[in-house]
Protein: Nitroreductase
Amino acid sequence: MKKPAVTEVPIHPLIAERWSGRAFDETKTVTREQVISLLEAARWAPSCYGDQPWRFVVWHRTQDPQGWEKAFATLWPFNQAWVKRASLLVLVCADPIFSYNGEPNAWAEYDCGAAAENLCLQAVALGLMSHPMAGFDPEALRAVAGVPERYKIVSLIAVGHPAEPDVLDGELAEKERAPRERRPLAELCFAGKWGKSL
Structure:
């Protein structure tokens, strides 16, 4: 199902078509080549001093069902209701210490967001759908993934092939069919000074 963004002026289709759907087709799997493609896109994101603070842990539902189930078990019930059909779960972690000088990196999570968005856009390019989320137990997921204490758990991304909303029940199907909404530019963007209209 496609729900392109409604914009004031045209934007690139890759961006316009990216949205966080919940209807995944559990009969189709994400290939290893597609997984590598997603991670390569993330790897080439910009970062402060080129430090690349992101780290990813990937669980594949059909290639590692036990691992995927352990990661899945850390999700909140609302997310479990729709994530159960996704092929991949991708954990995004941030290294809060610069590798080049050992000092704190205040921009690590920002950089991880850029890498995660690259991954999500690459998913669109591959005909896949991604849904970043925060509804999980971070410490339980840290234990499942064996993430060292130094790293901050940032987010989890479900990835898979899109399906029609009919695969979802009730409220979830309604959410999937609902139009996409964003605040107007005038509320979010200013010209030279906070509150000054563009």
About this structure: The mean pLDDT is 96. The two ends are 34 Å apart (CA to CA).
